Amino acid sequence: MNLSPHFSLAELTASTTATARGIDNTLPADLMANAENTAEMMERIRAHLSKIAGRDVPIKITSGYRCTALNAAVGGKANSDHARAQAVDFCAPAFGTPYEICKELAPQISALEVGQLIHEFGTWVHVSTRVPDRPANRVITISAAGTSLGVQRV
Q1: pLDDT per residue over 119-128, tens digit each?
Q2: Counting runs of H as helices and runs of E as strands, what totals does the chain give?
Q3: CB-CB contact of 13 with 43 (8 Å)
């Protein structure tokens, strides 16, 4: 089932950890609207990166929705936006490194309606939709050294 032109429910719920551990990561029906909003945010990000690159930039989702058991298995925070289908971790090698992606997206997060942008460990980009009880337009870097404001090289 497609959530948007370029993102499917299967992509948003896929998890090698869930498969390996026998965890059912099926999206509950009451989170479908969140998943659709998240896919639309990813469409805006994909379109922006493609426009800047001057060519189609596919996005590879590495983590999307996580049920409670999966979120715990991967060491996610209990209040993770992933558990509400409101966050995605991704890479877009056709555009560049996670650092380059974050540097491009950071000034655009308000226009892209991204609630939070995180450059994580130099390995992936985390984005979440705007959530009423969370700060909007939050940009941070998480590395082995800790958390810092803005997009930093790690």
Answers
A1: 999 999 999 9
A2: 6, 6
A3: no
pLDDT digits (tens, 9 = 90+) for 78-94: 989 999 999 999 999 99
Give residues with Cβ within 8 angstroms of 144, minimum separation 6.
121, 154
Checking if the pLDDT of 131 tops 80, the result is no
pLDDT band at residue 130 using 50, 70 and 90 as cut-offs = confident
Residues 29, 45: Cα–Cα separation, whole Å: 25
Task: Report yes or no: 89 and 119 within 8 Å, Cβ to Cβ.
Answer: no
Fold of 9-149: Muramoyl-pentapeptide Carboxypeptidase; domain 2 (3.30.1380)
Whose CA is closest to 66, among 79, 47, 52?
79
Beta bridge partners of 127: 88, 117
Coil vs helix vs strand at 140: strand
Coil, strand or helix at 67: coil
Residue 114's identity, in one-letter code, is V
Give the pLDDT band of residue 135 (cuts 50, 70, 90): low
